[in-house]
Amino acid sequence: MNTETIQPGDSGRKKYFLSSGIILRYLIGNDDKIETMIICKDSDTDLITTDLALHEAFGSINQNDELKPGKTAKLFENVDVLSYRQMKGQNKPVLTHERMDELRELALKK
Description:
Largest sheet: 4 strands, mixed
Radius of gyration: 14 Å
Number of helices: 6
Helix content: 40-55%
Number of strands: 4
Shape: globular
Strand content: 15-25%
Order of helices and strands: EEHHEHHEHH
Structural class: alpha/beta
């Protein structure tokens, strides 16, 4: 699993940033570690992502992929979403076919 650990703040809670590839792997892949981390989120852990990461992950789903609504609901229930524009001070980049292919390769590799 390739999440980025963010240093705990004053609260001492663990924080993990979920990248586009991790989110896509959760949505259409088969990774028990990622599913458990998101679906059964520990109360002392914060899961964080950006609207850009969500955009890239959902934009990389093909019509043949099996997307389960329950998993999508758990993602939005347990993961805090930050604004890329507010964090970086710039607009989100355009999602290209090359980026989609790169994310799908990461998400679906065994």
